[in-house]
Amino acid sequence: MQHSSTYRMRVKQNIRMTASDCEDTVIFLALEPIYGEALKPFMPGQFVRIGIPKLNEPAPGYFAIASCPEYPDSYEFFVKNAGPLSAYLCDINEGTELEVEGPMGKGFDLAPFKGADVYLVGVGTGIAPLRTVWQNIIHHREDFGKVTIYAGFLTSMHQLLTDELEELAKFNIEVSITLEIGHDSWDGPIGYVQHALEADAPDGVNAVACLAGMSAMVDACSETLQNLGFDESRILLNH
């Protein structure tokens, strides 16, 4: 039975993002409203709870929205095949209905930080909530100073949004990609994103950082940023 706080959405797109020969599957999933309903508004960094109608198993799960908040027509997600629900979503067909609850979570509120430099730090599918931030910044670029994205992936086959990240330079947004496992033709940073932060040593005096990803990475990057002079109040999480 559908819970009173949930509503139905329909699969608009399901596209594999990782390389076909990559052992890990990550998809781009877009959900659109049905029955003529309007898309519920959201702020950068918020997430929703997704479940399968009339089924308790696999259990519903939480997924960060990756859409641009400016006039979106769907909720977009990056889903890694890492459990029963995500496996179901990775194989789902267009037109299939799902139950959604939200948006929820505090998100990344940059309103108090106009004029500040912005650093977005995430790994793997943690790039999803950060995508909402940089796409929102594009629409309000004059409100912020330097904007830099630090994204980490296991290997080059695990990279997401390669073309989109490369195009951000035209909006004066810098991008640093770190691979945990490099290869012969890779000339970027190798290791973890906190190592790239340490090497670049961004100035935290008038800056704010948004972190998304695994808890160990978030903790390590928070410590690194504080060591670089970022006040704890300027290191934001979306939950």
What is the overall number of helices?
Answer: 5
CATH topology of the largest domain: Rossmann fold
How large is the share of residues in beta strands?
A: 25-35%
What would you call the quaternary organization?
A: single chain
Question: Helix proportion of residues, in percent?
Answer: 10-25%
**Strand arrangement in the largest pleated sheet:** 4-3-6-1-2-5
What report would you give on this structure?
This protein is α/β, with parallel strands linked by helices and 239 residues long. The chain folds into two domains: 6-104, Translation factors (Elongation Factor Tu (Ef-tu), domain 3, Beta Barrel), CATH 2.40.30.10; 111-236, Nucleotide-binding domain of ferredoxin-NADP reductase (FNR) module (Rossmann fold, 3-Layer(aba) Sandwich). It is 20% helix and 30% strand. The protein is built from five helices and eleven strands. The strands form two sheets. Strands 4-3-6-1-2-5 form a six-stranded antiparallel beta sheet. It has a five-stranded parallel beta sheet with strand order 9-8-7-10-11, with helices on both faces. Strand 10, helix 5 (215-227) and strand 11 (235-236) form a beta-alpha-beta unit.
Primary descriptors:
single chain; alpha/beta; Elongation Factor Tu (Ef-tu), domain 3; five-stranded parallel sheet; 5 helices; 11 strands; 30% strand; globular
Question: Topology, pairings included?
Answer:
Blueprint: E1 6-16, E2 26-33, E3 47-51, E4 61-64, E5 75-80, H1 84-90, E6 97-104, E7 117-123, H2 127-139, E8 147-153, H3 162-167, E9 173-179, H4 193-200, E10 207-212, H5 215-227, E11 235-236
Parallel strand pairs: 7-8, 7-10, 8-9, 10-11
Antiparallel strand pairs: 1-2, 1-6, 2-5, 3-4, 3-6
